[in-house]
Structure formats: structure tokens, C-alpha cells
Amino acid sequence: xxxxxxxxxxxxxxxxxxxxxxxxxxxxxxxxxxxxxxxxxxxxxxxxxxxxxxxxxxxxxxxxxxxxxxxxxxxxxxxxxxxxxxxxxxxxxxxxxxxxxxxxxxxxxxxxxxxxxxxxxxxxxxxxxxxxxxxxxxxxxxxxxxxxxxxxxxxxxxxxxxxxxxxxxxxxxxxxxxxxxxxxxxxxxxxxxxxxxxxxxxxxxxxxxxxxxxxxxxxxxxxxxxxxxxxxxxxxxxxxxxxxxxxxxxxxxxxxxxxxxxxxxxxxxxxxxxxxxxxxxxxxxxxxxxxxxxxxxxxxxxxxxxxxxxxxxxxxxxxxxxxxxxxxxxxxxxxxxxxxxxxxxxxxxxxxxxxxxxxxxxxxxxxxxxxxxxxxxxxxxxxxxxxxxxxxxxxxxxxxxxxxxxxxxxxxxxxxxxxxxxxxxxxxxxxx
Length: 432
What we know:
By secondary structure, this protein is mainly β. It has strands spanning 3-4, 13-23, 26-36, 46-53, 60-61, 70-76, 80-85, 95-100, 106-110, 119-126, 131-137, 143-148, 158-159, 172-177, 180-184, 192-195, 202-204, 206-208, 212-221, 224-235, 238-246, 251-253, 264-270, 273-278, 281-284, 291-293, 305-309, 312-317, 320-325, 349-355, 365-367, 370-374, 392-401, 404-409, 414-419.
């Protein structure tokens, strides 16, 4: 079923992204990342790397210009690869871009328009207007979005003015269709973002969810957007999985798919449906009903990347790659229902660490695939009990009733929690 690519990547090499490419008119697969090349003076130095393959099993390393002391972080093929120069002890010039040439190599160039300290974490090529959207961290620590129209390295990146600054983390899991682009942050209660004009001005999408969703990958297929990721939480600190969908990238619902036991790390569309992959493999014809497919042999957790070329599905972790035929993953051939998320029973009790430094109104508990907030009636004068420590309390959470949690500290103080309609937005921690 799944075949492991032998000797790829080689020891010391790391994969960070995949793409389907055409090199000299020949369809193929592309992997990007870096190779460890540390020295005594600069032990963490890396060299940017690209690999190409016809079948996903045998890979050839490509020539990458100005690759020393740099690393690739994202692919926006066929336009660009994005990355960063420098390492601790080995200063670099900042963000770098590489573009494919007609000689099957990649030409590097310091990316104009970025500030020192900016970092790109994801990028997407918007084919309809030949634009690249890049996302990441700005030098001041906020979420950044940049745009360019590549023209053989004469384009200049422009930082978006109306970027999603309220997102505490940079947008990831970018997906696009026509002029619609969707990105996800990993901290907001409404984590989906979309631009109204191809990337110049970003807004939070309509997102109704009883739990927190963190996207790991997103695609456009079957005339819909699909986002795979984890939800918090089934049991305390135990995340489950879900695949959400949207017809337009603007309105999302967390209730359109069953909750899965294991969070998927990547998702790919085939002519037969969808495949979502992580510790377990899920297959679906419509993205709503999922069944259990064949697991990735030797996968031990962490990030996954996905691409499909013809009938060949390529899945990669940073240190391993797998290949399968899409025909072998038809949903009708895998009828077994997947294990659902483990949910608590009323009356059970769990050890719990409650962060208290930002006050009771910034201390939700995520449990039973719902978000819970302190019951005002159990808060003396709207504050924590006097016996609470300033930063953290250790204790137990008891699932007393379907609509009641009780958090009791090791010293016996109790605060009741009730379900919230939606996860509260992350707010700055007040001075206390």
C-alpha cells in the first residue's frame, strides 16, 4: 500500500514543503528544505536544498544558487521558493527567494521589500493574477503578510497594510482558488482569515465553533475549501481531529464533519475524494463522512506535507517520504468506521493545571469538545478566591453535570465552570 522512499531524505536533510511541478515540460514532484552544514564556529548552519522526482520514490538533488547558510521554509510553485539566510553565530541577509529556471536549477536572490527580522513561514501562488502571497512574522513580532508579482527576480515585496494584526500567530495552511485566499492563525477563536482583494486587506472569516480549531493544512477541491487540523479538547489537554469545509472561504462551520480521534496533519484531494493523514489515515468521498484507511508505516508524529501528481500521492514528514496510488485509497474500499474522539463521562475527575495570572475572564477550560468559562456566581467579587496563587493553580476538574464543571485546588477552593457559546477571543493579559 504505502511505499517508503528509500534513502530520502539523506541523513542531515529536512523536508519542509512539497509541490507538483513541471520541469522542462516534464511533470514531476518537488521537495524543498535544508541540509545540516554546521561548522565549529557555526554549528547550526544549514544549506538550502531542493529535490525532484518522477515517482516519489527516487529523488535527485537539484542545483540551488546561493544556498549556503540558508534554509527554505515554503514553496509557492511555479513562482518561488521562500526562505531565510543566517543562523546563530552566522548572520545572514534576511529573507531570500529562489526561482526556477529553464535549466532545472533554482536561482537565489535577496528578497527586496522585507525588513531585517522578518520571517516567512508559508507562501501561496495565486495563478489567476500571477501573484504570490507570503505570511510569517514581522520584525516587531506581529503577524505579517507580503505580496509580490514575480518577474524573474525584478519584483518587489510589499507589506500588506491591513494585515491580520489581531492574529497572535502568523497565518499558515494557505489555500487558494481563483482570487480567494484563505489562511489560518493558531490562537484565535475565529482562526480563518481571508482577503477581499487578493491579499491586500485581510478580515476574519465567519466561524462558529464550540471548540478551538487549529489548522495544519488546507486545500481547495470539489469546489470547496477544506481545512484539516486539531480541536481542543476532548479530555483535558487531549486534542482531537476534524476537517472543516467552506464553499467560499468566508463562512466556516465546525459542525460539518465528525470529530476524529487523531488530528490529521495533511490533506490531499484525489479523483476519488479526500485523504487526511496523521497518526491515522482517513478517507472520504465528500469531506463529511470519514472512514479509516491504511496507516503510514513508520510515522512517529509531527508535521506532514502532501502532494499528488496524476495517480501518485506523495506524503512527507521532515525525515521520511511515502508514496501510494490514489486508486488504492478509494473510500468505498475502506469501509471501517474510524475511532471517535474519547469524551468524558459525567462524574469523572481529571488532574488539571489552571493558569490564573490573567484573571478568571481569561482562563477558559477546553473540555468535552466545548469551551467552559467561570460561573460568575462562584467568583468572589468577580475575582479568583483569595487562596489562589497569582500564576497557576494545580487541582482537579470534576465533570459534575453535562453543563457543570468544578475546578478544585489542592487547598480545597472551588470554582464552577459553565459552557460558553463560543471560545472567547484571546485578550491582552491585564496588569494585576
